[in-house]
């Protein structure tokens, strides 16, 4: 069976920026309840170079991130290809495609990677998600559960 | 007639930064300014919150060095709960915090070198920006890139074991710590499978120091002439003058090595440090009061720390420190790019300290917290990766925070960063009508030497492309560069 990592990132102390880590809380409960021994989770504030080592041990990685894209209605699952062309604006955070590319170049591993973008709205010093962001998160979670059920059916 | 060149934001610097370079009608650099948008709302945000929440709340500020804020806040609250400063904690409490802090220093310095600096050193300052990054290093020097990744990972594991979790760690609490280090955690770090163990980290850190020294020997003229200017230097030092990132007294030296702040208690920092507000910047400009605004500004960070301390209390780093100090005949080192050399010596020192701490049985003891007579005010200082970090809190009788003042490392380095940009701009851009990629990168190299962190913890808001605008004498846009 495929080994899957769901990796949420963002700062849960900055309101909707915490959509990724909050999403992982839902996943953890689901994985425990369903005893999904092939599925794993992780969280962090931001992606960084060491995540290349982290993802090298998985067949599929789903990154979960807050999105500020205004025309995104609620969420979107997007496949990611390795990409080293872009210099990141921030020095301490790198993109998913950057991590995937680094993994390929250093470890010769190419896990299937995708990003679940969940629309966020406010980024103040608060723990709570905005109601609309929470709604988007639950919709995305329902979608991802169905997605993996389908993957399991196809695997078996 | 003056012309204005704007570079914004600065690539590979956390948060938002903008550089404006004003040219006069003869194309001479007339004035330069580094504009940084610093988030200041946090100090108001914590008012009214129970004081014991502060060490966790402050981690909302920054997803890059949350450990530094976590520990600086905890140190300030140690004073409020009557646990004293530094030495007031139990041996386990202090050593667990030190392990957390040196783990943070190790991973941050490793990231800076391998992710930020090494592309410039190994691939050249004028290399194609498409390859001048860690992926470019991975292609050309795969072993080195792997080391960088694993050193970061090792440091993160140290933090994870001591802070309790990756996000919003709760390890440090007022008066101590809430966990010790289990034997399993200790052995994972001390005796982990090759290469994930502390001995390998020490070896790789030593290799990184040698890598910089080799680069320096081949590029000495460039390194020494890049943004070299005299300044004061300020840092914490241990009471016996040793380098200490976690606790000590405040010391400052001038560019000749004379002590201008002589080992003062940081509870009194406000008697010595003041912040100037300038109308063109959101970020304040700190200076030593007794020297005044013009002469009292100072640098903080790796270069300042090695200029302020008398020795490094671990053998391998001490040997490197002696070579570093000998280079300037024992006088303070004012070479901007030698900050990288100092940072790598600190990387080596951090790995050595981590090993010493892991071998200390105090980390497995259960006496974690002390409390004494409660007060209503406390100051916590710590040497964060980028320099001295100040946290100051006052509370009322209901245990609510009534005042918070934070001076972050990047604020302390505001004036020297501006001076570095000014020097590089004058050297590179005088008489030039167009900004070339090497010119742009030179300005960024000057800023990156300080490793500024602009408190931008919301990654979703921090993604912006590089934007350079060139304005003519009447502020008309002459050129626009966008990455």
Outline the structure in words.
The complex is a heterodimer of chains A (156) and B (483). With 156 residues, chain A is of the alpha/beta class. Chain A has a single domain, classed as Rossmann fold (3-Layer(aba) Sandwich). Chain A contains 4 helices and 5 strands, in the order βαβαββαβα. Chain A has a 5-stranded mixed β-sheet with strand order 2-1-3-5-4, covered by helices on one side. In chain A, helix 1 packs across helix 4. The longest helix of chain A has 25 residues. Chain B contains 17 helices and 16 strands. In chain B, a hairpin with a 2-residue loop joins strand 12 and strand 13. In chain B, the strands form 5 sheets. A 5-stranded antiparallel β-sheet of chain B has the order 3-2-1-15-16, covered by helices on one side. Chain B has a 4-stranded mixed β-sheet with strand order 8-7-6-11. Chain B folds into 2 domains: 91 residues, no CATH class; 365 residues, Orthogonal Bundle (Cytochrome-c3 Hydrogenase, chain B), CATH 1.10.645.10. The two termini of chain B are 29 Å apart. The interface between A and B is large, with 41 and 57 residues.
């Amino acid at each position: 069976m495929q080994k899957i990592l769901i990796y949420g990132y963002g700062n849960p102390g900055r309101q909707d920026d915490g959509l990724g880590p909050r999403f992982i809380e839902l996943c953890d409960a689901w994985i425990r309840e369903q005893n999904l021994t092939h599925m794993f989770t992780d969280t962090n504030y931001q992606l960084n170079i060491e995540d290349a080592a982290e993802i090298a041990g998985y067949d599929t990685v789903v990154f979960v991130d807050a999105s500020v894209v205004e025309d995104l209605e609620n969420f979107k699952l997007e496949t990611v290809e390795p990409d080293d062309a872009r210099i990141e604006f921030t020095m301490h955070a790198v993109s998913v495609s950057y991590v995937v590319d680094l993994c390929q170049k250093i470890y010769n591993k190419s896990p299937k990677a995708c990003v679940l973008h969940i629309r966020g709205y406010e980024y103040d010093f608060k723990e709570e998600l905005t109601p609309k962001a929470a709604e988007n998160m639950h919709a995305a979670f329902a979608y991802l559960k169905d997605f993996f059920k389908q993957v399991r059916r196809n695997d078996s | 007639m003056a012309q204005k060149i704007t570079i914004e934001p600065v690539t590979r610097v956390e948060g938002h930064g903008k550089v404006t370079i004003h040219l006069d009608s003869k194309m001479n650099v007339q004035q330069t300014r580094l504009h940084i948008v610093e988030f200041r709302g946090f100090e108001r945000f914590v008012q009214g919150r129970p004081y014991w929440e502060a060490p966790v709340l402050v981690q909302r500020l920054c997803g890059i060095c949350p450990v530094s804020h976590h520990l600086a806040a905890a140190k300030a609250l140690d004073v409020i709960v009557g646990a004293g400063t530094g030495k007031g904690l139990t041996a386990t409490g202090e050593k667990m915090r030190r392990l957390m802090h040196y783990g943070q220093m190790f991973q941050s310095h490793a990231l800076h070198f391998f992710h930020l600096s090494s592309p410039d050193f190994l691939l050249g300052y004028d290399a194609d920006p498409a390859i001048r990054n860690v992926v470019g290093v991975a292609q050309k020097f795969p072993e080195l890139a792997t080391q960088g990744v694993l050193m970061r990972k090792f440091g993160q594991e140290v933090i994870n074991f001591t802070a309790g979790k990756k996000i919003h760690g709760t390890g440090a609490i007022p008066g101590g710590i809430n966990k010790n280090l289990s034997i399993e955690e200790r052995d994972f770090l001390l005796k982990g499978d090759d290469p994930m163990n502390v001995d390998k980290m020490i070896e790789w850190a030593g290799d990184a120091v040698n890598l910089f020294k080799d680069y320096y020997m081949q590029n000495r003229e460039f390194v020494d002439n890049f943004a070299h200017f005299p300044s004061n230097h300020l840092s914490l030092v241990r009471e016996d003058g040793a380098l200490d990132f976690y606790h000590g007294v405040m010391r400052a030296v001038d560019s000749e090595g004379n002590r201008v702040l002589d080992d003062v208690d940081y509870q009194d920092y406000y008697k010595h440090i003041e912040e100037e507000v300038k109308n063109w910047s959101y970020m304040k400009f700190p200076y030593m009061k007794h020297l005044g605004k013009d002469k009292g500004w100072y640098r903080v960070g790796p270069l300042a720390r090695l200029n302020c301390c008398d020795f490094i209390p671990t053998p391998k780093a001490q040997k490197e420190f002696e070579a570093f100090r000998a280079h300037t005949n024992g006088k303070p080192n004012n070479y901007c790019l030698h900050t990288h050399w100092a940072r790598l010596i600190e990387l080596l020192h951090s790995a050595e300290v981590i090993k010493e701490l892991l071998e200390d049985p105090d980390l497995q003891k259960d006496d974690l917290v002390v409390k004494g007579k409660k007060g209503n005010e406390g100051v916590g200082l710590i040497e964060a990766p980028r320099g001295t970090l100040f946290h100051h809190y006052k509370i009322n009788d209901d245990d609510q925070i009534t005042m918070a003042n934070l001076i972050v490392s990047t604020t302390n380095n505001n004036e020297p960063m501006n001076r570095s940009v000014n020097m590089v701009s004058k050297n590179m851009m005088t008489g030039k009508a167009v900004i070339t990629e090497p010119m742009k990168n030179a300005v960024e190299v000057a800023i990156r030497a300080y490793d500024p962190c602009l408190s931008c913890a919301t990654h979703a808001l921090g993604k912006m492309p590089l934007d350079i605008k060139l304005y003519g004498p009447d502020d008309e846009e002459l050129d626009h560069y966008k990455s």
